[in-house]
Specification:
The complex is a heterodimer. By secondary structure, chain A is mainly beta. In chain A, strand 34 (639-660) and strand 35 (664-675) form a beta hairpin. Chain B has helices at 23-34, 40-45, 62-66, 83-94, 105-130, 142-145, 153-167, 185-198, 202-212, 254-258, 273-278, 304-309, 376-389, 395-405, 423-437, 444-451, 454-457, 503-508; strands spanning 53-54, 239-243, 270-271, 310-311, 316-317, 320-321, 344-345, 361-363, 366-367, 371-375, 460-463, 468-470, 477-479, 486-490. The chains are: A mainly beta, B mainly alpha.
Chain lengths: 1090, 518
């Protein structure tokens, strides 16, 4: 039979047609089955008329009858039957003595000869290619084998041959974006009919990459979607996703700027999923496609569908990979003798006494002092001491019959960090079931489970993991890790290694259960009623034990261990938090075609409610560090805390789709959302959108161009979206917080005090967006291209207002009287071709986004070294403009200076307003730290069983301030990197770096940010390399397997940038000595199909 | 159908509509006003911006101001806070919602008095360091907060004095039990006296001090000067106003920052040689005027308050002789977290066992002793100073000074009319006495400000002790002449008599003017 990959269906069909046009018969089947057909109009024109007679047959039987002898076949996706050109195979091979000789001709579906098509014997190196007439001749060993016939732009075809003979193979065009069905809000749609901007990533795009989380999987893969990652810590390495720029959040505490995530129809968390379970991801980028999600859609929507079972024999897969991770870049701190020398120099510059003598510096240099007084401690190597093993295993079983399909997947992921005790594991389970009870009613259910234990070390000082990283980046090489007498070296906050090696830990066990269940009832042809229910329970349990540390006086061997600094007391925190989310939803969908007028109407309503609570208890003063349960510690000083909050959202929405001959397309959406975050009267928002498309390539006048231009579609949209995602669920209530303690005469009393101001007038933030786009395919679909231009305007953004100190409380949220625009261009393009057995493809995407604040009542808003104002981007760097370095004292005369300690070697700041002094009025825009340009491209090449993929990703037109990662000069904390070497001294007046400082702050990048510290942080990164090899079938079959692929995959291997060579440019301005740096990952993997 | 699911309300916070229903509510709101009204950290760190102290850590900000480098963008230290003021305003605006049957008028007036005191105290601090400041007596909107202008300092001071005078009668002279530590009538009058002195209202100051020196008040000097600051002696007869702490739950951490490196401290606040030199010899003479003073044995025969206030080289403290001079000593000048002057403060940490798993602390970073804001000795000295400045020099001036000098554990020679016969000599004396008696208690900078001596005392190098060696067996010192450590250098300009209004505030509120010179 023909290639049929249908999901189960049990509709009974009764047909009796004689020599009827296929289209008419299909309409009848649509009516009876509730399924819809998707096909290009011209295709059906080539259909032969059909004579069919069937009573109470299955849909499959009916379809097979209709398609028998037709030049096309069909595939069933969800409830859509997609019609595609068929492969025509004729002439069975005739018996002949070995060796088998097979002659053949390869054509396209229309019968046109394909020249240069490759014909290979599967699992061997034997192969040939067709001549200019499409003919080939190949000799096969005794017993025959499988011939793989492939041609660029067409789907490869496998043909089992056991005897000599002649074959005729008609290749069908590879599935193109035209035929692809994409997941959209509350449904699916043929790519051809999509009028909005929807980017997709399929399971294929992310296979064979050691992806620890989903943002990493998207990064660089979609135009208009910017992902930035600044952290490599296991379990905390998810990047942030921005769709088409920064849409909200003027200022700190603004509304959320992250896109909404909907997993199998239920709003969820992107961290819950096992990347292996993803079937497809769609990002709804514009108002046209996302307005159906109204209130949560202003920053885009990510729709994720998980893998479902398919009808057919049971299929089992096993995928695994294992590898190591390593820090991409770390600061190149100078050795201790130079740290000492530079600190002395800074002190000399400030007329302060020197700390180190020449003898000290000599001892640091030669390393002869074994007492510990003159070490060169490489703290970063001590910190990042672990190999960082990670492994991932995934087993899935799927299958189904006429009525019921299932998919069961189990995953295990284990990622260890390069720092001791940092580890993240995920145990995932997912079951998806769907069943067609009868012709009219189908049910589906999904159950997901995640157990994700997480652990990290914690510091005794200021209890956190980031303090350990910060300390290692700060503590000078002149401080010993250990003195000769065994005492640990330390500074005022303690010691990074003492904390790391102590019994302290912070562990989390996170449990998430997600469940969804739904039904599809079709009481009338074309009408579907789909009630559904979603539930998500997330529980986190934390145990954080902080041990106490006694430090001792260090010295040469034999120095008595006299206690000095004590950090404590030891303490334990146990916390449990829980989030329960429920979704109740009802959808009704009606599809109707009258002639060539195709219409679809969707209406729905939903209610969401989420409640969070947390309870924690702590005790301190454990006798020792051996037991870590609360009951072991005394009750004195214990603490119990608990809090809770909730939110709700009610929505009503609808969508209307219309097309004429799939040539003229129209879509309109409308959604009403009511949010509990706003007071009555300000609660409900209305979010409409319209979009239209015109498939020019379907016009008659276009037919002459058809071989060169396969598809040309233009589309345009307009829509309004909302945002209500602010951190405070009760912003319209003034809040009076408890826990304001004081003690009178050693008696604790607890009080209350106003906490945050209220704003009862608070309402939706509104984003209006519009745009146009073009989709095109050329050269028999070898070249595809999409272009988009868009504008987003955010009005009255929701944010926490700023207030002068006399206000004294946390300022309330407001709808700022302001506006911001994002204007951008997106380009996606792909090309694929082959030269003999070598085939290759290039896919790329490019995004340019210009963000600008266009209105702002109240004027410039400054947050230390960042600001925004009318005319500048939201993420703007702020500081003085530097005009070089004062080379000699005389140069200072007559210039405006920041203070009276400015001397030769200091940075010269520009007096912008010529008032003779350098002050806040001289600070200017120093560039934006959100990349204006992001891009990615994938190069794929395959030769026989080998394949190689290179994936590059980059950002441009972005600035970054180096901040704390360039180091500093200091006595025992603060250490310089190599940029400090070419510093100004009297002997080196034309240096690249100013004179050294310690107490003086005139050059300091944190106190006095200036353009001197701002650099271009553009980069191009080889994000992933994958080399794969498919083990020959001959071998695989012998051991009872179906397919085995082995591969090597490397992540973040190469980076090209002009930024500081030891700071990861992707981190950019977010880089800080507190963060776990980005990592590179090398893995080997195996995929097995049974 | 049940209630509208969209009608959610806060689950773990009160609102004004769910509060003010009982006496307990009012009490809790008043406690909220007390929470953080003043910090021991401020009291102990503040001498670092004066010639009494030096903070070696640039990031703590004190030296930024002390060395004359403060700018609006980088003011070093910031006291521009209205949190306590607005909590008090909120309390005062709402407390009358509690009905008279639930909260009797006597208690209500006392509680209002407490809140008004706390508000007045913050306005005193604000006007003292910033001069003109916005004066608001109600909760205001963000829009108002972003346009409010500065009220002249004189108006703010008048308000503070008027408030203190008004509330004093309603406040009790003393409390008992777990009310001890609340604002008393004495505290209101003592703050009033301080503000009057600082603003040269000498006759008012004299009157106010006299009230405090007579019944119904019974303040007296605590006999043991060193013991005055130990936690077990909190709330003694000398204390008029203090910040109350309780280990774990309302704990103070700052003693750790003060202590020497060898005790695990940071030596953030280091006393200076200039302060050490201000202590008289046991003979009641300034060191330069006493021939018996040996510059190489500088700590011998000195005012006992020196060894009670400052951990100096060779002092026996915490089981050993303090040694900032010898190679190999944890406290060696130049060592990390060692004092850059060779001196550490000793007030509050005379005996570390007070805080070691005791009723007053798990360790030095989690302590429960009170930190004194105003004590009776200050009132006696304020009285004397006001009398001197008003040129009403009489026996009561000498008597007040001698009370302080003759505290049993201090026993310094009495001062007499013969030794200090005129206003000028008495002025020198009272200023020295004040500096020495109140060293490390956060008042020195205010004194520099009002005496206008910044250009003298906040210029040039900040010196530490002499180099040399300490005999670990007996603490004997061998010192090198003229070998003082230098911790840093300072330069003073007249603008530094006020702090800069933080640029952050002026960025938000464009109506806010800046102090002269910044």
């Amino acid at each position: 039979c023909l290639q049929v990959s249908a999901t189960g269906y049990s509709q009974r069909i009764t047909l009796s047609q004689q020599n009827a046009p296929l289209e008419k018969v299909l309409k009848e089947i649509e009516k009876q089955s509730g399924y819809t057909f998707a096909y290009t109009g011209t295709m059906v024109d080539k259909a032969k008329n059909v004579s069919v007679s069937i009573v109470n047959g299955s849909l499959e039987q009916a379809l097979n009858l209709c398609f028998n002898g037709q030049p096309f076949t069909y595939t069933i996706i969800e409830k859509t039957i997609v019609i595609k050109p068929a492969i025509v195979v004729e002439a069975a091979p005739k018996p002949a003595p070995p060796p088998i000789e097979v002659k053949g001709v390869v054509t396209d579906a229309a019968g046109k000869a394909l020249s240069g098509a490759s014909v290979n014997l599967k699992g061997s190196t034997q192969g040939t290619s067709t001549d200019k007439n499409g003919n080939f001749l190949i000799q096969l060993p005794e017993g025959g084998g499988k011939l793989v016939i492939s041609y660029v732009g067409y789907e490869p075809y496998e043909l089992a041959v056991s005897r000599s003979g002649t074959v005729k193979v008609a290749l069908k065009l590879a599935e193109t974006k035209v035929d692809e069905v994409v997941v959209i809000g509350y449904g699916t749609q043929k790519r051809l009919n999509v009028t909005g901007a929807v980017s997709t990533v399929s399971s294929k795009d992310i296979a064979d990459r050691p992806i620890t989380n989903i943002p990493n999987a998207i990064q660089g893969k979609m135009a208009g979607v910017t992902v930035t990652t600044s952290n490599g810590q296991p379990g905390r390495d998810a990047g942030t996703i921005r769709v088409r720029g920064i849409g909200s959040g003027i200022g700190s505490g603004g509304a959320s700027t992250t896109p909404a995530v909907i997993i199998d129809g239920v709003p969820g968390s992107i961290g819950d999923l096992n990347p292996n379970d993803i079937e497809s991801m769609s990002v709804l980028k514009d108002a046209a496609s996302s307005a159906i999600y109204g209130a949560r859609a202003s920053n885009g929507v990510i729709l994720i569908t998980t893998k479902k079972g398919k009808k057919g024999s049971l299929q089992m897969r096993y995928n695994m990979y294992a590898g190591v991770q390593d820090i991409t870049r770390k600061p190149d701190f100078l050795p201790s003798w130079q740290q000492a020398e530079l600190y002395n120099e800074a002190r000399a510059n400030e007329n302060a006494p020197l700390k180190w003598t020449d003898t000290d510096i000599q001892l640091f240099k030669d390393g002869t002092d074994k007492t510990g007084a003159h070490p060169n401690t490489d703290w970063l190597s001590l910190l990042y001491s672990e190999p960082g093993w990670q492994q991932n295993h995934n087993v899935s079983v799927s299958g189904g019959d006429e009525r019921t399909n299932y998919m069961v997947s189990l995953g295990y992921f284990d990622q260890k960090g390069n720092i001791q005790k940092s580890r993240y594991q995920k145990f995932n389970g997912l079951i998806n079931l769907n069943s067609q009870l009868n012709k009219k009613i189908g049910v589906n259910a999904g159950l997901g489970f995640l157990y994700a234990p997480f652990q990290e070390p914690v510091s005794t000082y200021a209890t956190s993991f980031s303090q350990i990283i910060r300390m290692a980046n700060r503590i000078s090489n002149t401080v010993p890790d250990k003195w000769e007498n065994g005492a640990l070296g330390y500074v005022s906050d303690g010691s990074a290694m003492a904390w790391l090696q102590s019994p302290s830990f912070n562990r989390w066990q996170n449990y998430t259960v997600t469940a969804n269940a739904g039904a599809d009832w079709s009481p009338l042809p074309g009408l579907h009623v789909k009630p559904s229910f979603g539930y998500r329970l997330a529980i986190g349990q934390q145990q954080q034990y902080v041990s106490d540390i006694q430090y001792y006086k260090g010295g040469p061997a034999g120095t008595p261990l006299t206690p000095t600094k004590y950090q404590g007391p030891n303490n334990l925190l146990n916390a449990t938090d829980r989030t329960v989310y429920t979704l109740v939803q009802g959808l009704a969908e009606y599809t109707k075609s009258i002639g060539h007028h195709n219409m679809k109407l969707l209406a729905g309503a939903s209610q969401e409610y989420s409640v969070y609570n947390i309870f924690s208890g702590s005790r301190q003063g454990f006798l020792n560090n051996s037991l870590t349960q609360l009951n072991v510690a005394p009750a004195l000083g214990q603490e119990a805390k608990g809090s809770s909050n909730d939110w709700a959202l009610q929505s009503v929405f609808g969508r209307f789709n219309y097309n004429f001959r799939e040539k003229y397309l129209l879509e309109a959406n409308l959604r009403f959302d009511g949010s509990s975050r706003f007071a009555k009267g300000h609660r409900w928002g209305k979010f409409p959108s319209v979009s239209a498309g015109w498939v020019l390539s379907k016009e008659n006048f276009f037919s002459g161009l058809t071989p060169a231009i396969d598809l040309l579609k233009v589309r345009a949209f307009w829509g309004k979206l909302g945002n209500q995602q602010i951190a405070n669920n009760y912003a319209y209530f003034e809040s009076i917080a408890g826990g304001q303690v004081y003690s009178f005469n050693q008696t604790l009393v607890t009080g209350v005090a106003p906490n945050a101001g209220a704003n009862p007038l608070l309402q939706w933030e509104e984003t209006e967006s519009s745009g146009v786009g073009i989709d095109a395919a050329f050269l028999a679909n070898k070249l595809t291209l999409s272009l988009d231009y868009f504008e987003r305007k955010t009005e009255n953004p929701l944010m926490r207002s700023q207030a002068g100190a006399p206000y004294a409380f946390t300022p309330p949220y407001v709808n700022v009287d302001g506006a911001m625009t994002n204007k951008g261009i997106e380009v996606s393009a792909g090309y694929r071709d082959a030269i003999g057995a070598f085939n290759y493809s290039v896919n790329g995407n490019f995004t340019y986004i210009k963000n600008k604040v266009t209105r702002l009542t109240g004027g410039r808003v400054i947050n230390d070294n960042t600001f925004y104002d009318v005319g500048t981007p939201l993420y703007s760097l702020y500081g003085y403009e530097t005009e070089g370095i004062y080379q000699k004292t005389a140069d200072i005369t007559g210039t405006a200076v920041i203070n009276n300690k400015v001397s030769a070697g200091d940075l010269k700041y520009k007096d912008q307003n010529d008032d003779g002094k350098i002050d806040a009025k001289d600070k200017v825009f120093l560039g934006t730290y959100f990349p204006k340009i992001t891009y990615g491209f994938t190069l794929f090449s395959g030769y026989k069983n080998f394949e190689l993929t290179l994936f590059f990703q980059g950002a441009a037109a972005v600035k970054a301030m180096a901040g704390t990662l360039i180091g500093s000069v200091g006595p025992d904390v603060g250490k310089p990197t190599s940029v400090f070497l070419d510093r100004w001294t009297a002997a080196n007046p034309s240096a690249a770096f100013p004179r050294l400082w310690y107490s003086y702050k005139q050059n300091d990048p944190l106190t006095n940010p200036s353009s001197f510290w701002v650099k271009d942080a553009s980069y191009l990164r080889l994000k992933n390399v994958m080399v794969g090899y498919n083990i020959p079938q001959a071998i695989v079959k012998k051991v009872g397997l179906n397919n085995v692929k082995v591969y090597y995959s490397g992540q973040n291997l190469l980076t090209f940038t002009k930024f500081y060579k030891w700071i990861d440019p992707e981190t950019g301005s977010a880089g800080s000595i507190y963060n776990y740096p980005q990592v590179k990952i090398n893995t080997f993997g195996v995929n097995v199909t049974f | 159908c049940k209630k509208d699911v969209l009608n959610t309300a806060p689950l773990d916070e009160y609102s004004n509509s769910s509060l003010w229903t009982s006496k307990a509510d009012a009490n809790a709101a008043l406690t909220g006003c007390y929470s953080g009204w003043e910090l021991g950290d401020n009291i102990l760190y503040d001498d670092c911006i004066s010639d009494n102290g030096f903070d070696q850590f640039p990031w703590e900000g004190y030296e930024t101001f002390a060395s004359g480098l403060a700018t609006p963008s980088n003011p070093g230290v910031n006291k521009y806070s209205y949190t306590t003021i607005q909590r008090c305003n909120w309390f005062l605006e709402n407390v009358d919602k509690v009905s008279a049957t639930l909260l009797d008028n006597t208690l209500r007036d006392r509680m209002k008095g407490e809140a008004r005191f706390l508000r007045a105290y913050r306005y005193f601090v604000l006007s003292q360091v910033y001069g003109d400041v916005p004066l608001t007596l109600t909760n205001i909107t963000t829009a108002e907060a972003n346009t409010i202008t500065r009220t002249p300092k004189a108006t703010v001071v008048d308000f503070v004095l008027k408030e203190l005078a008004e509330i004093a009668p309603a406040l009790p002279v003393s409390y008992s039990g777990s009310d001890i530590g609340r604002i008393t009538r004495g505290a209101a009058l003592a703050l009033k006296a301080r503000v009057e002195l600082f603003n040269a209202k000498y006759t008012d100051c004299i009157t106010t001090c006299q009230l405090l020196m007579t019944a119904p008040f019974s303040y007296s000097l605590y006999p043991n000067y060193e013991g005055l600051f130990r936690p077990q002696n909190s709330n003694n007869k000398e204390v008029i106003l203090d910040v109350q702490y309780l280990q774990n739950d309302n704990a103070e951490w700052v003693l750790g920052a003060m202590l020497p490196n060898s005790y695990g401290g940071w030596s953030s606040m280091a006393p200076t040689q200039s302060l050490v030199d201000a202590y008289e010899t046991k003979n009641g003479k300034e060191i330069q005027n006493d021939p018996s003073y040996d510059p190489l044995q500088p700590y011998k025969n000195r005012d006992p308050r020196l060894d009670a206030s400052i951990i100096r080289p060779g002092l026996y403290h915490n089981g050993g002789y303090f040694d900032p001079l010898s190679q190999g000593s944890s406290d060696l000048v130049g060592n990390n977290n060692a004092s850059p002057t060779g001196y550490n403060w000793k007030k509050y940490v005379a005996d570390l066992d007070d805080y070691n798993n005791s009723a007053y602390g798990t360790d030095i970073w989690n302590t429960g002793g009170s930190i004194i804001v105003i004590r009776y000795a200050e009132i006696l000295l304020a009285y004397a100073e006001a009398k001197i400045e008003a040129n009403q020099i009489d026996a009561s001036v000498y008597a007040a000074i001698n009370l302080v000098r003759q505290r049993p554990t201090v026993n310094m020679p009495v001062v007499t009319n013969a030794l200090y016969p005129d206003q000028a000599s008495l002025r020198t004396l009272i200023r020295r006495e004040r500096r020495v008696e109140l060293a490390g208690e956060g008042l020195r900078w205010y004194d520099i400000q009002r005496w206008k001596i910044g250009s003298t005392v906040l210029n040039g190098n900040v010196k530490g002790c002499l180099n040399g060696s300490v005999d670990p067996s007996n603490g004997n010192l061998t010192l090198i002449p003229n070998s003082n450590f230098v911790a840093g250098s300072r330069s003073f300009a007249d603008k530094n008599y006020l702090w800069p209004i933080p640029q952050k505030e002026r960025d938000i509120n464009k109506e806010l003017s800046q102090n002269q010179g910044y």
